[in-house]
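Troubleshooting log. The previous structure file for this entry was overwritten by mistake, so regenerating from the original sequence record. Sequence copied from the archived sheet and checked twice against the printout by T.R.
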Amino acid sequence: MKTEPIVILSQREIEKMRQAGSLAARLLEHLEPMVQPGVTTLQLNDEAERWTQAHGAKSAPLGYKGFPKSICTSVNEVVCHGIPNARQVLKEGDIINIDVTPIVDGYHGDTSKTFIVGTGSPKTQKLVEVTRECLYLGIKEVKPGAKIGDIGAAIQEYAEAQGFSVVRDFVGHGIRNIFHTAPDIPHYGTRGKGKSLRAGMVFTIEPMINEGTHEVEVLSDGWTAVTRDRQLSAQFEHTIVVTDDGVEILTEIK
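Regenerated output below.
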């Protein structure tokens, strides 16, 4: 739990976050055609790094607390923080979450999306569609005066009604010229609970939705989080800013 104060960003800082968010969205769009059977997660990583550098930005994950790569690639039962490698080859029917965070002029644009490799089973397609809907249901709750618990409650209610579970061990977070800061944004919770949202707050909403149990474990590499029952997990993420009358998504193609 982050205990530092929540920072309200200035209009100048929010504009910098827009620029970083726009680049992050374009990077995911650039990588999408590469998500094909036979492609390795290292190839995705290396292209992301090349493209990021070509656009004058830096990859925030690279070296962050020792993380060895430029993006996170989380395949099938991997919930988050999967490390790209040359031996991991995408196969027909896999799902992969690609999580990117370029730094532009010191500010972070953080977004992720789960892709189906080729054609997934109906159950796989449902998991991915429900997870994407969870993200947008959470975003829909954001406005001045709403509570952080409203976001998590909306996500949890929908995910569980669809027969899935919500990961508790990883949450959304405040973000600016710092990668992870206050407030924490759980993807489960109770309406009316938690801190009040105020215009100028910037944070990520990034629900991780599991096919089976919500429980996860971290592998011996210290990063890769997997579902305890090894069933599938999907995730979608946007960085948003609370506006005077609602919310703006900073990591969408505009």
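The chain has a mean pLDDT of 97. Archived copy saved in two places this time.
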